[in-house]
Amino acid sequence: MTLDVRNLTIKYGDHTVLSEVNFNIEDGSIIGLVAPNGTGKTTLFNAIIRFIPIHEGSITIDGREYKNTSKDIKALHKIVTFFPDQAELYEDFNGYEHIEMYRDIWNKDKKNIDDIITRLNMDSYVKNKVKTYSLGMRQRLCFAMMIAANTKVMFMDEIMNGLDPVNVELVSSVLREIKEDGKIIIVASHLLDNLDEYADEIFFLDQKDVYYTYNREKETDEYIKGFIGKENLGQLGTLPEHTLYLNNDRICIPTSGLDRDTVNAVLNTLRDLSDRSVSLGPLGTNEHYLRIYKGEQSHETS
């Protein structure tokens, strides 16, 4: 299965929100979708699922192009689900009833609800009415509803909202599991470091298009990554070409061409100058976000 988007353009009157967006996603993939608010993430979701009309371009799933017709939209909604908004939950229904409803609408194979509930640690409250749920419990319920629907394509917008670190890791783990069933999962999230835990690729929206794609497997160049104020940059000495200085405090120094003693010396200097984390590894989603949306600052010292 593939999801193929070609030359997708979305306009509101004279205002173009997305322009000639192109990408192809294979099955068994989790894609992170990243962009500042107001740059088209939700619009992209809504266009693909046909909640809004598209003006130009095509959307093809498994070789079938889905158009703005009632027949195509109905067929599309059988294979695609969108993460439910908590406002759509029924306060006087319990969690089990919500999960059962999503399963019965989408999943003819009758996926076992009890297995989903146990996997997401919901047994203790799932039979209680939703009006008694906390924000995190509601968010887990919405996630469980999508798992029960079990569609080929899943769009998940800010699924980690309201979750504590334990449940963020739980949901991340379940995402890794369900992608093995051949799903295409697109996750929009502001938890950038968390995306590195489960996403195969990260799409960065900018200038009305997919501006940059970060492939976690292909991007393997190693950097020394740490934090340092501009007033202390001189203590690092002459920095290699392609060093990144981001957000006026984050330094990313490529290790290519540096011997091990030099790498260790830089690591120790960064540890001495800040109590924040220092690490070795490729650039992550957070570094790319800062590079793309906030720009690079000069690391040159006068």
UniProtKB/TrEMBL annotation:
Pfam families: ABC_tran. Keywords: ATP-binding, Nucleotide-binding, Transport. SUPFAM superfamilies: P-loop containing nucleoside triphosphate hydrolases (SSF52540). Residues 3-232 form the ABC transporter domain. The keyword Nucleotide-binding applies. The keyword Hydrolase does not apply. GO terms for molecular function: ATP binding; ATP hydrolysis activity. It comes from the Bacteria. PANTHER family: ABC TRANSPORTER ATP-BINDING PROTEIN ALBC-RELATED. This is ABC-2 type transport system ATP-binding protein. The lineage of its organism: Bacteria, Bacillati, Bacillota, Bacilli, Bacillales.
